[in-house]
Amino acid sequence: MIKTVIFDLDDTLYNYREAHALAFAQLTVYAEKELGIPAAEFEKLHQHYLENAKKFMGDVAATHNRLIRYQMILEEKGLPLYPHALRMCEIYWETFLDATRPFAGARGLLTALHAQNIRIGIGTNMTAYMQFRKLERMELLPLVDFLVSSEEASAEKPAPAFFARCVQKALCTAEECLFVGDSLEMDVYGALRAGLQAVWYHPEGERLEKGVLQITDLGQLTELLQVLDGRNGV
User: What is the pTM of this model?
Assistant: First the structure.
């Protein structure tokens, strides 16, 4: 029987790509106007430090910290950290949070799971603070029983240590946990290798992965849980 459902957050409970695109567009406007860095050059610099952060910092959650990326860009260009570093971070996240909306059915699904006494977790490869802010903005945080970030676990999905921390907080066995996420490798295969059950949230739906449970709409999860519990003889 499934006793805990753990959700990835970004692109699973809301549209990360859409919010990021809007936020980054505002950031490039600031870079061009206030820093004199053309949009195309700023995009290259940002991508450079996104890809190379782990070379400086190792495989740690802080590589997701956008303030560090903006700091590095300013330092490389010989520009003052004050006031730009903090202002860039504020512009990005203020725009991002304003654009953050839960996917259709997300709030209803979490509410229904709670009504069934199923614990709800969030498992995310990000630092904790902004993930809490996103959940709060979407009014989902009151429905969440626990959160595991890669910052807390000192490991990123699909590392077994990340999922072990999820199971520890779930207060049940790995087999009684269901992990739901949009990344086939990080969320689904990572969870399966760690002994959890897993569902691939793949709204495009054009690809079927052999041996992998898949939903194209969050609303399908309730029915799938009934199937899984039936399969387990509950």
Answer: 0.94
